[in-house]
Amino acid sequence: MPGLKNRSILRQHTARILRIIREEGPVTRVDLAQHTGFDSATVTKITKALIRKRLIHETALGQSTGGRRPKLLEITTDAYTVIGVNVDQDFISIQSMGLSARPIKTRRIGNPEFRNPDKVLRTTQKAIAQMVEEHANVLGVGVAFPGIVNSETGVCIYNAYFGWHNVPVRSALSAGLSVPVKVENDVRSVALGEQWFGAARSVSNMVCLRSHMGVGAAVVVGGEVLHGAHNMAGELGHTVVAVNGPLCVCGSYGCLEAIASVSSIVRNVKQRLADNYPSMLGELPPERLDYKAICRAAKAGDKLAVRTLDEAAQYLAIAIGNAIDHVDPEMILLCGSAFMEDDYLYHKVLSLEPRRSFAFSSNAVAIERSKLDHCELVGAATLILKDFFSGGGTL
User: How, if at all, do strands 56-61 and 27-28 pair?
Assistant: First the structure.
């Protein structure tokens, strides 16, 4: 094929073939030629090179259309290892996985000093280095980090909950490593992972909304995760939804995060108990009064639990409706412990949302929950996988 010797063109063609095998495989060489428009010689040349690198392999025989049955090609998922890291205020989690994001090893380390960047980054770097040493053929390390993150520089620009400002996360975590490190906002990482391996496969336009200890969102348009001019695209958690509402960690009042995050739900219940609001939750010792306990109480009809969770659901539904009207997505994807640890809030939001957005758009939008275990870790690893596959099997 003319121009195939050009290295950049070869890389583009290889990346295209790899993408088809990854997304559609197992496939035959004839399938690849039909999908790409490449001639058989080009397909053969590229697939031979990928087999030599152990990126793909021949598997079972396909259906014959006359003559010999063709061999099927698929990704060799254990050829390389990627490592995903997620940092939050409770734990530093780290997981190794293959090219299909299937987990190999998972570790979780307590993070009690999350407000101390030096301590957190030293602990995280040590855990990463140990995990890298335990595996062969590590492609790189992806890190999902909360807050406003510049993914190009690897700097955490601002995290209100941690109290971090302009912390060079990537440079600290890369110290002593022989593999690349990529750092991205945690919700944008989740959105990418869901596009590759989860509920949003084949979805080009979506909003991923995560309610965990904070509330954040990521916006995907045309298959690309948006960052914005200041890396703040999707900061729904700090949009004001309740005038004169509770104080948020960012310093504003009435932010969505101050009402609808897991930490805010627990805090608001404790405040109402302190104000002598009657509830079965008042019988629990403080260390057992957590989000799961509140959900159980709501299902048992406890008025305080129902009031607090329904209030959170109401404002989440408003935020989702606004996102639908502004972005016009195919899907709203909900993730984070508020939706994944119990289904009360998820079903309440589903019952409210159709009344919170423009009727025409709302009817066409799917609202789904994440289908990935450890979606933050998968998303972090996908940061590396995306670069690897788009580079034709190189970084």
Answer: unpaired
